[in-house]
Amino acid sequence: MREDGRVSFWPAPHIEVPVHATVTLPGSKSITNRALILAALADGPSTLTGALRSRDTDLMIKALQGLGTEILGDAETLEVTPAPLRSTAVDCGLAGTIMRFLPPAAALATGDVAFFGDEQAKLRPLTTILDALRKLGLDVDGDALPFVVHGTGHLRGGAVTIDASGSSQFVSGLLLSAARFDEGITVQHDGKPLPSMPHIEMTVEMLRRADVVVHTPADSRSAQTWTVEPGPIRAVDWEIEPDLSNATPFLAAAAVTGGEVSIPMWPRGTTQPGDVIREILVRMGAEARIFDGVLTVRGPDRLAGIDIDLHDVGELTPTVAALAALADSPSVLRGIAHLRGHETDRLAALSAEINRLGGNVTETEDGLEIVPAPLHGGQWHSYADHRMATAGAILGLRVPGVEIEDIGTTAKTLPTFVALWEQMLASALSGEGASH
């Protein structure tokens, strides 16, 4: 959005030659915001190295500072010193990791904590976590943004059953602060299959690194119950991995142009869902290899369609949908009905925007069916959704004349997206086969 209130459109770079680049990405939003909460509730000071600085993480920092936590550092290294939590107002923006992770921590504050956010955030489901907190002994006014948590300095905790099929963040939000509850917590999920299980595994792994005792079933993939015992959260110096989900548009650029893109510092083992992009790209015909900590993807001459269940890695859907729209055979993306409750209704948004450019996308009960069709230029609306914006950028590489509404929304998790994208394309953009 421009300063005069008018909608701005970014002409997506279009190229006719393969992309060849190395792209170094900042830290993971998911890990950064979890580490910030654990550091704020820890038994001593912590240091975060490689932290992502974006709208979502800066809002988390500001919220925790408002609650009384001392956080120093204006770049990727942050020094976090816990302090008793106090009354404040929390701006959630459009960040699920704030509106769903911080209310349980706010229960430990002395005084009221008011939550508000962007206009579109009022539509994001929150009843599950707020009702769960009520059952655990918290007084909360409201069922969606804005709402008020009446903190008393402690929370009873105990056992609670929730339907977290709408978002894994409901489980993670309860687990992150639970060691500080009087009785800890036992969370049981009762409902349709849980989405984004890798994010819950990330939460459990980080809690255990902080010496929090977490009990889960032996098979974490089928987990329905999690127990966190009460006790201290040990201070940890966190080294944040690169954000693998933010890497996916850049790797997709290699796939759709028949080029080669490398991402340094790709972790060998990780709980980040973004790691699954390697398997997806290979199934669509690309090559992917890791050598000496660098992931390199080489695109094929022809991109194949894919039939895939994205239930556990739903955040990759916009990237995969863009790839599918540029493939040479049909694709079916399944298991992602929960995306209707993300930053926007991502299924409706993807079908509307790809079809606006001439595509053939049908929305199903739990996903999308995408039949390749000749695409043409036009306006691509982002719906204030960072991953919608980057999906449009992928399409723009192969489709001339794509203009993306509010590319600035990528600042939610990757403020440097445009600069990184244009740097990646710099050699191509200076050659004969490029246009802007």
From TrEMBL:
<feature type="active site" description="Proton acceptor">
    <location>
        <position position="315"/>
    </location>
</feature>
<keyword id="KW-0963">Cytoplasm</keyword>
<keyword id="KW-0808">Transferase</keyword>
<feature type="binding site">
    <location>
        <position position="387"/>
    </location>
    <ligand>
        <name>phosphoenolpyruvate</name>
    </ligand>
</feature>
<feature type="binding site">
    <location>
        <position position="29"/>
    </location>
    <ligand>
        <name>3-phosphoshikimate</name>
    </ligand>
</feature>
<dbReference type="Pfam" id="PF00275">
    <property type="entry name" value="EPSP_synthase"/>
</dbReference>
<keyword id="KW-0028">Amino-acid biosynthesis</keyword>
<feature type="binding site">
    <location>
        <position position="124"/>
    </location>
    <ligand>
        <name>phosphoenolpyruvate</name>
    </ligand>
</feature>
<feature type="binding site">
    <location>
        <position position="169"/>
    </location>
    <ligand>
        <name>phosphoenolpyruvate</name>
    </ligand>
</feature>
<feature type="binding site">
    <location>
        <position position="342"/>
    </location>
    <ligand>
        <name>3-phosphoshikimate</name>
    </ligand>
</feature>
<feature type="binding site">
    <location>
        <position position="30"/>
    </location>
    <ligand>
        <name>3-phosphoshikimate</name>
    </ligand>
</feature>
<comment type="similarity">
    <text>Belongs to the EPSP synthase family.</text>
</comment>
<dbReference type="InterPro" id="IPR036968">
    <property type="entry name" value="Enolpyruvate_Tfrase_sf"/>
</dbReference>
<comment type="subunit">
    <text>Monomer.</text>
</comment>
<comment type="function">
    <text>Catalyzes the transfer of the enolpyruvyl moiety of phosphoenolpyruvate (PEP) to the 5-hydroxyl of shikimate-3-phosphate (S3P) to produce enolpyruvyl shikimate-3-phosphate and inorganic phosphate.</text>
</comment>
<feature type="domain" description="Enolpyruvate transferase">
    <location>
        <begin position="17"/>
        <end position="418"/>
    </location>
</feature>
<comment type="pathway">
    <text>Metabolic intermediate biosynthesis; chorismate biosynthesis; chorismate from D-erythrose 4-phosphate and phosphoenolpyruvate: step 6/7.</text>
</comment>
<feature type="binding site">
    <location>
        <position position="346"/>
    </location>
    <ligand>
        <name>phosphoenolpyruvate</name>
    </ligand>
</feature>
<keyword id="KW-0057">Aromatic amino acid biosynthesis</keyword>
<dbReference type="InterPro" id="IPR001986">
    <property type="entry name" value="Enolpyruvate_Tfrase_dom"/>
</dbReference>
<feature type="binding site">
    <location>
        <position position="29"/>
    </location>
    <ligand>
        <name>phosphoenolpyruvate</name>
    </ligand>
</feature>
<feature type="binding site">
    <location>
        <position position="315"/>
    </location>
    <ligand>
        <name>3-phosphoshikimate</name>
    </ligand>
</feature>
<feature type="binding site">
    <location>
        <position position="168"/>
    </location>
    <ligand>
        <name>3-phosphoshikimate</name>
    </ligand>
</feature>
<feature type="binding site">
    <location>
        <position position="412"/>
    </location>
    <ligand>
        <name>phosphoenolpyruvate</name>
    </ligand>
</feature>
<feature type="binding site">
    <location>
        <position position="196"/>
    </location>
    <ligand>
        <name>3-phosphoshikimate</name>
    </ligand>
</feature>
<feature type="binding site">
    <location>
        <position position="96"/>
    </location>
    <ligand>
        <name>phosphoenolpyruvate</name>
    </ligand>
</feature>
<dbReference type="InterPro" id="IPR013792">
    <property type="entry name" value="RNA3'P_cycl/enolpyr_Trfase_a/b"/>
</dbReference>
<protein>
    <recommendedName>
        <fullName>3-phosphoshikimate 1-carboxyvinyltransferase</fullName>
        <ecNumber>2.5.1.19</ecNumber>
    </recommendedName>
</protein>
<dbReference type="InterPro" id="IPR023193">
    <property type="entry name" value="EPSP_synthase_CS"/>
</dbReference>
<feature type="binding site">
    <location>
        <position position="169"/>
    </location>
    <ligand>
        <name>3-phosphoshikimate</name>
    </ligand>
</feature>
<feature type="binding site">
    <location>
        <position position="34"/>
    </location>
    <ligand>
        <name>3-phosphoshikimate</name>
    </ligand>
</feature>
<feature type="binding site">
    <location>
        <position position="167"/>
    </location>
    <ligand>
        <name>3-phosphoshikimate</name>
    </ligand>
</feature>
<dbReference type="InterPro" id="IPR006264">
    <property type="entry name" value="EPSP_synthase"/>
</dbReference>
